[in-house]
Task: inverse folding
């Protein structure tokens, strides 16, 4: 009886112990436990964690990122106990979850302390990348990879990087990290150190961060400086993108630094020799050089003589003949041209160049070939109120003044007979190379009829002329071949009472003395009064004497009778 009771007690005690043992084991589910490696078979590891059955874990779960797993029998490892038994009666173990649990504990502490953690970027997902934080997988948004957008992230893959934890949710297993926050913090520290030691003239390395129309912003390592387009190179640069690109590493010099505003002006050309030094010796006045057209404006074209040295060809110095033409119609960008140095101003860094001076002066060439007196034929290019412009050899124009169109007609009458496009013969009268003017004549192609008519005529000759017009101021008369003469009212008679124009009639013939031949106005001035006085003087000399007692009337009467008989 007693034995039976003893056996019953032992059974109850064993059952209690077994139940206690099983309960304790069940309480280990969902925790990290220590185990001993029993064996490593191919890609599986058998581990004894002190339960009634062993568990197996894939060998790859023991691998460290980027390295093969190193594990052997007898090693002690920590694994996560998921369940006491699976369908095969084995304990369900996980090294991955054990590492994650361990990592989460450390990460939560780092998150609370706002301290940095180390991780490895190992994959790409939508919107960003995956990071291994010593067993825990975190999400790295694309915007948090770097301070600037990163086009190629491959150099960062598989390399341990510092990260800042932005957000953690253990229940969901979510971790969001940022590499940018770490870089910005380091950048702020570097910025403070850089600004504290910054001074003008300092040479630094930087990375082109952004490019605008007026220059480029260069990251000096925590602080940005402006590299103006005019300070990139000595040569002309129309846009910074011609010489720089985003992400390019450049060497720059601090030109100006304002500690208050922390504005930094940078320069690249200042690190090179100034090409303008000794420019007067390199480019003497009147010397010819070849250059390349870099820019064309309304007022001229810029020509690069060497990198950093440009000169301006003003529109007035571009062509001998094309005066009111846009420079773009004479030269084109990138065209190679020959120019002459006209002026050099090293202080203002300006060189004046001439394009036409390297070409033959068409007025000099014209003068050499067609001097005054040469007869040519050309087209009427334009008609103005003062004359005709006629096209001449050498793509230049000469002018026929209206006064040189016809010997007899007035300028207005003569110019009305021409129209644009007419072919006309002209004679070269004068060539002024300095003023770029050529005077032409059409009437000069024929002899001056006035000269022919007055060839034998001289002052004081007495001529017979015909009254053509009676005016208040005198009478107009035709002399010789119809050339006009004029007798003023005061010259109509020696006798004042007879000085009346109305006593003459158109068509009446009169004798008068020539008092002036004006070849400029092509007119002859005459005087009846002078003729009468001359005749009186001759009569007095011939028929009168102081002691003859003859009266003036007798003398003149005798002279007139003699003249009449001579004429008969």
Result:
């Amino acid at each position: 009886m007693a034995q039976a009771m003893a056996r019953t007690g032992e059974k109850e005690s064993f059952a209690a112990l077994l139940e206690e043992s099983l309960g304790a084991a069940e309480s280990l589910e969902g925790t990290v436990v220590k185990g001993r490696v029993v064996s490593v078979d191919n890609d599986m590891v058998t581990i004894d964690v002190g339960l009634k059955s062993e568990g197996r874990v894939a060998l790859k779960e023991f691998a460290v990122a980027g390295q093969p797993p190193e594990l052997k029998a007898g090693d002690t490892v920590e694994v996560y106990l998921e369940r006491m038994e699976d369908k095969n009666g084995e304990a369900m173990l996980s090294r991955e979850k054990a590492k994650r649990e361990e990592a989460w504990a450390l990460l939560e502490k780092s998150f609370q302390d706002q301290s940095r953690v180390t991780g490895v970027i190992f994959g790409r997902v939508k919107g960003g990348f995956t990071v291994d934080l010593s067993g825990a997988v975190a999400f790295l948004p694309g915007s948090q990879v770097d301070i600037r957008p990163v086009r190629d992230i491959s150099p960062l893959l598989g390399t341990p990087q510092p990260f800042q934890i932005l957000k953690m949710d253990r229940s969901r297993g979510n971790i969001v990290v940022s590499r940018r926050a770490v870089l910005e913090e380091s950048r702020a520290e570097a910025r403070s150190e850089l600004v504290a030691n910054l001074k003008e003239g300092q040479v630094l390395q930087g990375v082109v961060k952004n490019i605008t129309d007026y220059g480029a912003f260069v990251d000096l390592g925590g602080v940005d400086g402006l590299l103006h387009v005019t300070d990139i190179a000595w040569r002309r640069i129309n846009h910074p993108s011609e010489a720089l690109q985003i992400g390019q590493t450049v060497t720059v010099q601090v030109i100006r630094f304002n500690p208050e505003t922390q504005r930094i002006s940078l320069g690249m050309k200042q690190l090179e020799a100034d090409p303008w030094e000794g420019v007067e010796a390199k480019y003497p006045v009147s010397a010819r050089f070849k250059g390349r057209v870099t820019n064309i404006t309304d007022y001229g074209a810029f020509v690069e003589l060497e990198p950093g040295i440009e000169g301006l060809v003003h529109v007035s110095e571009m062509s001998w003949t094309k005066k009111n033409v846009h420079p773009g119609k004479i030269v084109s960008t990138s065209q190679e041209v020959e120019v002459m140095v006209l002026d050099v101003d090293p202080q203002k860094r300006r060189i004046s160049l001439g394009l036409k001076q390297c070409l033959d002066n068409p007025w000099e060439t014209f003068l050499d070939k067609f001097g005054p007196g040469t007869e040519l034929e050309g087209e009427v290019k334009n008609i103005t109120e003062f004359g005709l412009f006629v096209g001449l050899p050498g793509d230049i124009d000469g002018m026929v003044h209206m006064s040189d169109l016809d010997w007899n007609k007035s300028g207005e009458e003569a110019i009305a007979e021409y129209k644009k496009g007419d072919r006309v013969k002209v004679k070269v009268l004068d060539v002024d190379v300095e003023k770029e003017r050529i005077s032409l004549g059409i009437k000069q192609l024929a002899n001056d009829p006035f000269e022919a008519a007055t060839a034998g005529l001289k002052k004081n000759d007495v001529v017979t002329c015909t009254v053509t017009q009676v005016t208040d101021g005198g009478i107009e008369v035709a002399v010789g071949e119809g050339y006009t003469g004029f007798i003023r009212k005061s010259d109509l008679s020696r006798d004042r009472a007879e000085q009346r124009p109305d006593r003459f009639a158109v068509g009446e013939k009169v004798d008068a003395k020539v008092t002036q031949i004006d070849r400029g106005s092509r007119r002859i001035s005459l005087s009846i009064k002078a003729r009468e006085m001359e005749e009186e003087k001759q009569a007095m000399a011939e028929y009168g004497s102081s002691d003859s007692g003859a009266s003036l009337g007798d003398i003149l009467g005798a002279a007139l009778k003699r003249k009449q008989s001579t004429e008969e």
Q: What stands out?
A: The longest strand covers residues 31-41.
